[in-house]
Design brief:
Blueprint lengths: L17 H21 L6 H35 L6 H18 L19 H10 L5 H20 L4 H29 L3 H25 L12 H14 L3 H13 L3 H30 L18 H14 L9 H16 L1 H24 L6 H14 L14 H5 L4 H30 L5 H28 L16 H28 L5 H21 L1 H7 L1 H8 L3
């Protein structure tokens, strides 16, 4: 076959040159830029651009405080000769780096970076490409700017420390980048199995809620000016402090402090230890990438148990029982809706963000319930505000209803299944979660603060129905017009598009404003009971709107089937 074998006497292929490597990296950089640029030319790209423009100042405002804090803190500690406190700066930047990685999703690519393996690419160049892709993520940018601010603060306070501090913080930044890459890749490796994914979900939920509990009960800012000291925490801190000094943040601070105290041998030893940690992180990351380079598949499909064969006799009996069950009563659910509900319950168990969005608001209300009851602030608005706060975590996930289905969405179009039934099952799970949160928040406030009055409870329930139906209708439309694939084996991935998240927040806030205006209007008339019929009328109108949207979903999905398949079935 032509081109597959060289003719006799043909010279061997010339060795790979550095110019060819630079051309490959330039092509990858150009590809990344073209993906970013062309993403705004697609349908809905203008809305995503507007969403990013709106979100960027908010993120910048949030990030500017730790960046300035690192700079001023480093200046204060060095200028006042409290060099031992520099470890709090390095540890703070390290924890900030990991916190941003977990909470701010990097922009998704329109292709899988692993596809470059198909091209003539050696492993060192593949590893370099993987390192550079995503280098400008929010975590790297914010963490690096914080270290630059700390370096500037140290230089202003003591210019003689600038060379040592700059070199140390540069190595520390590389170690942080390698550590986050290593941690993400290995966590994704563990999440490739469903059992590990469920265990990781439980750890994330309990760890995050435990941190909120410790922060609320032991942070002096929440103690009304009285610092609550715990001997157990102090003892744990004293035990962990020697170990913390041997980790990268502690070594970075030790290197700078030793240089300031003219202990150059200790400074060099700490810097070498920091560089060693960075090399270890890079080596572990490279090992993981080498396994993927050799073709390892992390899909959960590859970990499926072997299918069991059903004897023909059981198939016939099962078919007869299914035929007998097809004659259902008037109040029973259809087989399609029952199957979709079962599927959504499985999705709920495996979706970390959805479970956290359901549990965290109730837990936070529980933590603040005693304080609310003791302070006596808020009055009758505590219960409606808590219910509105709980909706923020659940409602946003209805704006990407097909994200969990992924490539399986194509079976909806080739099977006798109505998209209406699929979304009805998804919405019923969301409505059920909202109702459970309503009941739990009522119980928490009744136990820890004060029991909401029957008038407030019924009016809040009517408002909840109004908001839930409105949010469900708009969320269904956005799920079909702007779907986003959700891969549970990948961490740090947004559950919805940025524009959908802004719309979800805007809908909840608008509904809350309508409810609050209704309360003020009824109080102005001196007839608080009018809240119930007014909000109930809003709920009935929202239900009619929701049903009309639900009945049109089949036609809308048919018109958007190509865009849905392109987004959810891509690899």
């Amino acid at each position: 076959m032509a081109g597959l074998t060289d003719p006799p006497g043909h010279p061997p292929n010339p060795p790979w040159t550095s110019a060819q490597s630079r051309a490959q990296f330039a092509a990858l950089a150009q590809l990344r830029w073209c993906i970013f640029r062309n993403a705004f030319r697609r349908k809905g790209g203008v809305g995503e651009l507007i969403a990013r423009i709106l979100i960027f100042p908010v993120l910048a405002l949030i990030a500017i405080f730790p960046i300035l804090g690192a700079g001023f803190g480093a200046y204060l500690f060095v200028s006042t000769d409290r060099l031992a406190m520099l470890s709090s700066i390095t540890w703070g930047v390290f924890l900030l780096w990991q916190l941003v990685v977990l909470n701010i999703s990097a922009p998704g690519l329109s292709f899988d970076i692993n596809t470059i393996i198909r091209f003539p690419l050696s492993f060192p160049r593949y590893l370099t490409a993987r390192l550079f892709f995503g280098l400008l993520s929010a975590a790297n940018v914010i963490g690096t700017l914080a270290l630059i601010a700390a370096d500037i603060g140290i230089g202003v306070a003591k210019p003689s420390l600038v060379p040592c501090a700059t070199l140390t913080l540069f190595v520390f930044a590389l170690a942080n980048i390698f550590f986050t890459r290593m941690a993400i890749t290995w966590v994704e490796r563990w999440l490739s199995t469903r059992r590990a994914s469920e265990i990781f979900t439980a750890l994330i939920i309990f760890g995050s809620l435990g941190f909120q509990y410790i922060n609320l009960n032991f942070n002096p800012a929440f103690q009304n000016g009285h610092v609550h000291k715990s001997p157990i925490l102090i003892k744990i801190f004293n035990r962990l402090r020697p170990v913390a000094e041997l980790l990268p943040p502690g070594l970075a601070a030790t290197s700078i402090v030793s240089s300031a105290q003219a202990r150059h041998f200790d400074a060099i030893a700490s810097l070498l230890g920091l560089a060693t940690f960075g090399c270890i992180f890079l080596a572990i990351y490279a090992y993981r990438m080498h396994r993927e380079f050799r073709g390892e598949n992390l899909s959960q499909v590859s970990h499926q148990p072997a299918a069991t064969r059903i004897p023909p006799s059981q198939r016939i009996s099962g078919l007869q029982s299914a035929t007998a069950q097809s004659t259902r009563g008037p109040l029973s659910l259809s087989p399609t809706l029952s199957a979709c509900l079962h599927k959504e319950l499985i999705y709920l168990r495996r979706n970390t963000n959805q479970l956290y969005g359901f549990i965290a608001p109730v837990f936070m209300v529980f933590l603040f319930a005693n304080r609310i009851g003791a302070s006596g602030v808020g009055g009758s608005l505590i219960f409606p505000a808590s219910v509105a706060y709980s909706l923020l975590g659940v409602s946003i996930l209805s704006y990407n209803g097909l994200g969990m289905d992924g490539p399986g969405v194509q079976f909806y179009f080739i099977s006798p299944t109505r998209i209406r039934d699929v979304f009805l099952a998804k919405n019923l799970i969301g409505f059920l979660l909202s109702l459970i949160e309503f009941i739990l928040i009522f119980g928490v406030l009744a136990f820890g603060a004060r029991t909401p009055t029957p008038l407030t409870a019924v009016a809040t329930l009517c408002w909840l129905l109004f908001t839930t139906f409105t949010n469900g209708a708009i969320g269904n439309l956005r799920s079909l017009s702007a779907p986003k694939k959700i891969n549970l084996s990948k961490i740090n991935r947004a559950q919805t598009s940025q524009l959908s998240a802004i719309i979800a927040l805007g809908v909840v806030l608008a509904c809350f404003a309508i409810g609050f205006a209704t309360v003020l209007f009824c109080q102005h008339l001196g007839q608080p009971w009018l809240m119930i019929p007014i909000l109930l009328a809003f709920a009935i109108a929202a239900l009619i709107f929701y049903i009309r949207v639900l009945n049109r979903l089949d036609a809308i999905a048919l018109n958007h089937r190509e865009a849905i398949a392109e987004e959810l079935c891509k690899t």
